[in-house]
Every structure is written in C-alpha cells, then in structure tokens.
Fold each of these.
Amino acid sequence: DAGVIQSPRHEVTEMGQEVTLRCKPISGHNSLFWYRQTMMRGLELLIYFNNNVPIDDSGMPEDRFSAKMPNASFSTLKIQPSEPRDSAVYFCASTPDRVKHIQYFGAGTRLSVL
Amino acid sequence: DQQVKQNSPSLSVQEGRISILNCDYTNSMFDYFLWYKKYPAEGPTFLISISSIKDKNEDGRFTVFLNKSAKHLSLHIVPSQPGDSAVYFCAATSANSGGSNYKLTFGKGTLLTVNP
C-alpha cells in the first residue's frame, strides 16, 4: 500500500494567488482529514469527511478555505486568495471505520505564501 | 484554549536511558489517548494508544501510563535509542461520544533527542 499521497510536497506562491492542495487517501479508508501545522498553534484539524461527506468543518479558519471530496480516492483543499499567514505545513490523513481513531498521515505539503 | 498540552517543547536523553514524555489534558470527555511520532519531512505515525478504562498499555519499549484523576498521561521509552529521536505528539478524543466522532485533538509536540 502506498499510504496517503499528498501533492505537491512544496508550494511557493504569492499573496492573492489561489492554492490547491491534493490528497489521495489509502484505499478502503472511509474518513479523510485535513490538518494544518504551525509553530504557534501546533497540529490543528481543519475539516474531516466520512464517506465523502463533510462532517465537521469548524476548524476551517475562514471563507478563503474550502475543501472537497468528489470521490473516495481524492480530496482537495483550496485557499483563495492566499495570504502570508496561511504559510504552514498541511497534512492529509485517512482512517478506516474499524479503527477510526488511528489516523494515517501523508507526508504533508509545505506552503509558503510570499 | 489548549485542551491537550505538552509543556516540554524538547527533551534530551542518553542512549540506553529512559525517556519520559508528558501530556496533560483538560477536557474530561476525553476517553481515548494516542501518541504519534513524527520525523522531519514526514507525516506523524501512530505509536501507541490507551483507553480510559486502563491505566497502562505496553508495546515493546514503549509504555503509556494514564492518570485520569490528574488528567495526565506519559509515554515511557526504555531503553531509548538514537532512532527514537523525533517529535512526539499526544492526542486525545471522545471515543464514546458518538459513532460519528473521529476528531483527534493534538498537543504541540515534544522534540526528543537521544544522544549516542
């Protein structure tokens, strides 16, 4: 199994630009999570999906952030427009229902907004 | 408001000695706790977990202790090895609060350095 795959691994963009982060969960996993890691706030949950349906988006910082999961094997996190304070490492994780609290993380996308 | 706190940003120990990483929580609804390990440029990986019905769980060199009355848990690594050098995250959840709850609340992590 290839694990959770995130792309790109690094993204550098200018303020105001649209950024799209991508995630492919482990096959057969029902839930998908997007996290953001910063020095100040640590690892915080942004949104999670169960069976492709958004369950809790209370962690999404503001309307500039949106996430979709059009099918069981793909999800995107979009920031439009991006701001320098969005610079962080964004992780995607997935889990199967049978062990729902053990999440499997991707390697992350390091985003730098200049 | 941090519900899961790891008050030591870093810890340094000698190879072969015991490493003790600490974690405190404030939410009394938390009933399941996990430790994750993270190497640079990688995502966190699950290490060990414990349910609130237990006070200890052991897996090889790793043992997690839970003190519910103090809302405190700790991870013991014995003996510590240089390959254990990583950031360790404590996480908590309310496993029995409903079938749809998959949320984990993470601490900010502790950087463990094991010196040869």
Amino acid sequence: EAQVTQNPRYLITVTGKKLTVTCSQNMNHEYMSWYRQDPGLGLRQIYYSMNVEVTDKGDVPEGYKVSRKEKRNFPLILESPSPNQTSLYFCASSFLDAETGGLKLFFGSGTQLSVL
Amino acid sequence: GDSVTQMEGPVTLSEEAFLTINCTYTATGYPSLFWYVQYPGEGLQLLLKATKADDKGSNKGFEATYRKETTSFHLEKGSVQVSDSAVYFCALSDQRGGSYIPTFGRGTSLIVHP
C-alpha cells in the first residue's frame, strides 16, 4: 500500500530536549516536505527536499533541521525545542511534475507535538 | 508571492444541501490548483485537481473549475452528506525559481448535520 509513515503520532517533551520526528515514504517520490498546522494559520511549509541531499527552506524554517540521505526518509529534527513549536506536524511526498509544476501531495497522518 | 484565500468557516449545512466553498488565488506563473480534504484526526488527502485554465476537477461528487479570468477555484457539491464533514484546503503549486513550493489556504471547516 502506498503510504507516508510518520512517527511518533504523539510526542510530549520539555524545552531544550532534542527530538526527531521520522518520515518515510514507499512510493519512490523525489519530493518530500514538512508542514506545521496551527489553528487559524492553516498549513505552513517548514522545509522541503527535491531529491537526495537536496534540501531547502520553506516559509517557517527557524528552529528546525532536516536531512535527506536516502530517497525514502526525511526526518525532521528539533535541536532545542521551544513551546512555540507546539503544533501538529505533517510530512508529505510527491512526484515532481516538471511540465505543469504541480505536486500531488501524499500526507502522513500527523505528529502532535507538545513542548512544555 | 503566491497566495490562496478561502472563505472562513465553519460552514454549517443540513444533509443534502448544496455546498460552495470559495477559493481565489494569486500567482505569478501558471499554477496547478488543488483541493485537499482533512478528516478528523487524519492527514490531508487530495480531493481533486486542475492543471490549466477551464479544466474541471471532480471526485466523490465534488467539482471545481479552474477560472483564470477570475483567479478562482471554487469547490462545489450538489448534495452533501454527514460523512463530508471535514476541513477543506485549497492549494496551488507553482514553480518559483525552479523550486516547487505549494501554497495552502487556511482551510474551511464543513459541518453537515443529519
């Protein structure tokens, strides 16, 4: 079954304690990205990757890191989490449609992060 | 830069009512347009898409037409069901300097009562 798998589903941590949220896709997609969803703000992109070893900042990258060492995995790293990073996080992947510029995104089920 | 504006919710309807959720966009290029749906406790799923002007995307009874002249992509359904209760996101995807960065609207919550 084609899917994007995120772990963990729920995470409670304390300020300053490094954490990693994993994301894996089994569709051989070139494009992967991370979003955060906050009430009233919708979905905002944190980082994206257009292929292995290629990553770039989205609209809200501060306080986050990513890596793309393999095509299927795209972990999100919070080196020193702060309470304002409490949010619902989604990983997504897609093929790149060079002709239309379109991305048909497949989303994971989300990770609810609380930073105390 | 690119932007997507959706009508604010929640939209509350009775079962079998007609649904319209408005979406307008601004983009410098020729974007592809999408509607995604998020059911409670789940990630977003692609509902429908259109890649060029006058294209109509459709799925599960939902439709939206890419209107370049009005820069709109309104979502419609003739008869909603309780199971359609969800949050709907309008989005566009465009190349910006060789990068593909989707832009999402803030989402519109739909509540359908029996």
Amino acid sequence: GAGVSQSPSNKVTEKGKDVELRCDPISGHTALYWYRQSLGQGLEFLIYFQGNSAPDKSGLPSDRFSAERTGGSVSTLTIQRTQQEDSAVYLCASSLVSGADTQYFGPGTRLTVL
Amino acid sequence: GDSVTQMEGPVTLSEEAFLTINCTYTATGYPSLFWYVQYPGEGLQLLLKATKADDKGSNKGFEATYRKETTSFHLEKGSVQVSDSAVYFCALSLIQGAQKLVFGQGTRLTINP
C-alpha cells in the first residue's frame, strides 16, 4: 500500500517568506507526527496529532511554527517569516494508533532558507 | 528528561566484519525501543523494535536486546555487507505521556568491500 507522502520534496525560499509543508499519512493511521532533521540538532520532535487534535506541541521551536490536520488525514506545517536556522529536512510520520506503536516515515521535505 | 545516547560515528568496517553500535537510554517511564535506518537518499525505515525487558528485536540479520538493568539496546550484526552502509538511529517511545520518538544522534556506518 501507499506509504507516507510529503510535498514538496525540496523547497528553497528567501528569509522572511512563509512556507507550507504537506504530509499525507498512511490511510487509516490516526496518529501523525512532525520531526525536523538538521545537522546541528539531529532528529527533533515538533508536534503530534491524534485525529485532528494536537495534544503535544512541545517541540515547536517558536510561535512562527504552526501545524494543522484536517479530516483526520492531511497535515500542513507552516513556518512564517522563515529564518536561515529553519533550514532542515522536515519529516512526517504516521502510526496506526498513538503510543509506542511503530511510526512510518515519509521521505521528508528539504527546506533551504537563503 | 528522556534521552538516547549512541556511540559516536562514523564507523567504518570491512565486509563480513562483526558490528556493534551501542545505545543507552534514560527514561522516566517504561519505554519501547527502536532502531531506525536511513539508507543514502532514502527516508527513515524501522529496522527492529522491542517493547519490554529481555525482548530481542531482529530483522535483516540485525539484532538488539532490551536490557532494562543496563538501560541499553545495542545493535549487532554478525557479518555486515556493503549494502548495510547507512545511518542508524536508536530511539525510544513512552507508552504513557509523550507520544513521540526520542532519537539518538545517529551513527553513520560505512562498509568497505
């Protein structure tokens, strides 16, 4: 079956612009996660959705970052007024249920802020 | 807080060598433990997992045993291949509370023919 998909695969933007990153989870997966992979910080958790609710937003680095999920499926991560330190690979994962269930990762979106 | 520590990389081995990548963890609760692998140009893939003490996860010739007494989950393979070259991440997830994966820093493994 189809795995987790993310778009775009690459995004180059100028400092100060807003960007939207999209994640399509595996069909039927109720839990959705966003992570960020950067050279200096490794793999960091950003936010977790159970259905359309986000019970854990503790990893969002600033109020420039926000995310939403609609219909219990697609999620969008928005970064406003991008900064160079936002450059990273943004990974989305989904799991059938929350908790310690296996998370399946998408290929990621590589964001470069010039 | 919860954390995972992996052995420093990069690790370079010859084909058919024995591999160990050390992983230890600190957790406030009772975690599940995972090894994920990232092959060049590809996304993160689950390699193996263990959900309780003394469980052994295994896949593709790799093994790791959940050792609660030493808070460890070391990855081993008896005979590595060039195709095993990748970055390996140890991670934990708590059943209660935070529903996220906490990753180690990753270990880059290169296998030479």
Amino acid sequence: KAGVTQTPRYLIKTRGQQVTLSCSPISGHRSVSWYQQTPGQGLQFLFEYFSETQRNKGNFPGRFSGRQFSNSRSEMNVSTLELGDSALYLCASSLATRVDTQYFGPGTRLTVL
Amino acid sequence: AQSVTQLGSHVSVSEGALVLLRCNYSSSVPPYLFWYVQYPNQGLQLLLKYTSAATLVKGINGFEAEFKKSETSFHLTKPSAHMSDAAEYFCAVSDRPEYGNKLVFGAGTILRVKS
C-alpha cells in the first residue's frame, strides 16, 4: 500500500507570494493533518481535515488555510509569505474518526527568500 | 492543554549500550502517547503508541516504552543501540482525543550512536 505522498518536495518562494502544498493520504484514510516543523518552534499542529471538514485548528494566522477534497486529498495554502514561514511542512493521514496512528509523508521543504 | 517535555536535546551512547530517551507529559485526561523517529530529510515514522492498554508498550526496531501515570512519564528504551538508531526522536501526546487527531510534540531528542 502506498504511503502518504506530498508534492512538491522542495519549494522556493519570495516574500509576499502565496504557495499551495498538496498531500495524498494512504488509500482509505479520511483524516489528514498538517504540521509545521522549524528549528525554533519544533513541530506544530496546523489543522486537521476529516471528510472534507476542518475538525481541528492550531494557533496559526489566517494566512494559513487548507481544504480537503472528496477523495481525501488535501491542500494547504499560505498567502502573503513571510520569511518565518520557511519550514518543513508535514502531512499525516489516519484511518479512524478518533485518535489513531498518524502516518506521515516525507514533507515539503518551503524556503521563503 | 496537553504538553510534552523531552529531557535532553542530545543524547550520545555507544553502540551496544542502553538507549534511554525521556519524556514527561502533562494531561488532564487519560493520555494517548506516541514516540516517533525522524531520519534526516524524511518524515516521521511511528515507533510505538500507548492507548491505555498495557503499560509496557513494544514497538518496532527493538524499542519499548513504559507508561507511568504516577510519574507522568513515557520514557523510550532500547537495550542495545545500533548505528542505524541515530536519528531524532519525538514524544507526542494526543490533545483532546475526543475531537480527533491533533498531536502535541515534544522538542525532540537527537540520538547519536558512537562506534
């Protein structure tokens, strides 16, 4: 069974631009979560989608948004990029409605210049 | 809100020695606890999880962890370190599990294995 895939793997943007990252969960998984990983702040939860609805949201500004499609694939968007948005963005998928093992993708490395 | 503290940002052990990575959690409800490992330029891989069944949890690659409620701890151990264990390890707790999947991570511990 294929794992979680994320595209693109690497991305370079400049301040003020916007970016869209994509995540394809493991087949059959309906929950997709997004995390930001930086050296300074560590791993921080962005949001979770389940059955196309945002179920949980972390403490990030409104510039960070996401959505989930009917096939469970998810995208996250960051508008008006800032230097501090440079990070590894990780997507995780899981099967169940409640706490379940989250399987992580390899991440998208975003660099903002 | 739940929180996780990992004692020691860096741990160094000799090959064949015991690995002990410490994790303490703060939770107002029975916690769901996880250990993940991250190799360079990769995502996170689940090592093991505790979900209120047996307090001693066995995971992959010879790792195990013991849940101690009285100490609010969930330390990760491996009897004999291997060079391939060198990586960063994260302890995580599930925040408000009744509302789905949201993990709160510790700051991570980088494990170095010396030959």
